[in-house]
Model the fold of this input.
Amino acid sequence: MKRVKTENRKEEIINISSKLFKEKGYSAVSMRDIAQAMGIKAASLYNHITSKQEILSIIILDVAEKFTRGMDRIVESEDNAIDKLEKIIELHVNVTVNNADALGSLNNDWMHLVEPQLSYFLKLRSQYEENFRQIVKLGVDEGHLEPLNVEVMLFSILSTLRTLYLWYYKKEGVDTAELVVQMKTVLLRGVVLKP
Amino acid sequence: MKRVKTENRKEEIINISSKLFKEKGYSAVSMRDIAQAMGIKAASLYNHITSKQEILSIIILDVAEKFTRGMDRIVESEDNAIDKLEKIIELHVNVTVNNADALGSLNNDWMHLVEPQLSYFLKLRSQYEENFRQIVKLGVDEGHLEPLNVEVMLFSILSTLRTLYLWYYKKEGVDTAELVVQMKTVLLRGVVLKP
DNA sequence: TTCATAAACTAACAATTGTTAGTTTTGAGC
DNA sequence: GCTCAAAACTAACAATTGTTAGTTTATGAA
Done:
C-alpha cells in the first residue's frame, strides 16, 4: 500500500519539523536540517511536500483548528461561565499534551505564514479570543466572576494556557488529570489562601 | 562630542533591531533589513557594532539583568511571601512597559545566543526561576498560599508575566498603576467571585 | 581654511538558502 | 525475475546571508 506509506512519510516530516521549529524557530531551520534529521537529503523531501511553507502551515493550522473546534463545542454548551472556563482549561491541557511540539510554531512562527493561510490563521485566532472574551464577560454579568478588567482576566489566563507547552513536563510524571485540577484552581481561584 | 554621538547611533541600532526582532524573530531579520530601517546601508552598521550577534546579546542581556537586579532586591527584603510576589508583579509590569520590544527577543531568541553569553543567560534565568520558586514555597510554608503544586503556581504566574509584553497595550490608555493592581488581583486572588 | 575622524558609501566575498531537473535505487505484486 | 512507481539520490540554480576591504563624505575643532 504505497499511498499510506507516503502519508506516513509526510507525517514524519511534519513531526520532525515541529520539533526542530520548536527548538530554533522556523527561519533558523533549513530544509537540509530537516532532511538530516530524517536521514535523507534535502531534495528528497520534495517527494512528499511541496515547500517549506507547506510544512509550516500544516503544523500551525492543524492545531489551530483543534483549538477552534474545542472552543466551538464549549460555546455551544449550556454551561455557565465558570464551567466553560474550566472546559477551556481542559481543552488547552489536552491539546498541549498531545501536540506539544506544534505549539512552538503556533505561538512563535505564525507570522511566517503567507497568504491566504496567514489571514485564515489570524481570523481563527481573533475568533478564539473573542469567544473567550464573551465567556469572561458573561461570568462577570452572571456575578460569578470578580468585576475586574476583562482584558486583564482574559489574557492572564490565556497567556498561561498558551505557554503551558514550555513547562508542563517539568511536573515529573505528568498526570494530565492532576494538572487540569491544579490549573483550574490556580487560574480561577488564585493561589492566596482564603481565610 | 563624537563619543556620545556614536553611542546614540549604537542605541538606535539596538532599539530598531529590538522592534524588528520582536516582529519576525532574530533569524528572519537580515542586517540589510536593520540598515534599511535606519536609512543606511548594511555595511555602515559595522561602524557601530561588531556583529549581528552583538546586537542580540545586548538586547537580551541588558533586560535579563534588569530582571535579575529587581529580583535580588526583592529576595533581600524583609517582606513576607505575598508582598514579595506583589513586588515581582510590579517588577514585571515596569520592565515590560519600559522595554516592550526587548522582551520579544528575551522570550523567543535567546537560543540564538552563542557562548559564553548563552550560558550566562541560562544561568540568570534559572537563578531567577529558583528565587521565584523559593518565594512560592515560603508562601506555602508560612500558610499564606494554598498548598498546591509549586511548579504549577510558579509557571502559571510567571508565564503571564513573561508574555505581558504581547498584550498589555490592549488596555487602551494603559495606566501602569492600574494594570499592576489588576494583575495582582487576578494572578494572586483569582477571578472567581468569593461568596 | 585646514585637518582629523566619525560615519557613511560601493563592491565584493564565501557560505548558505529553498528549490528544480534529471537519474538511480528500492521493494511489492505479478 | 520483471515491472513500475515510490522515494531516494546527485548536481546545480539564483537569491540572500553576514561580513570585510577600501573609499568618500560630512562635521566640528583648530
Chain A touches chain B through 48 residues (CB under 8 Å). DSSP finds nine helices and no strands in chain A.
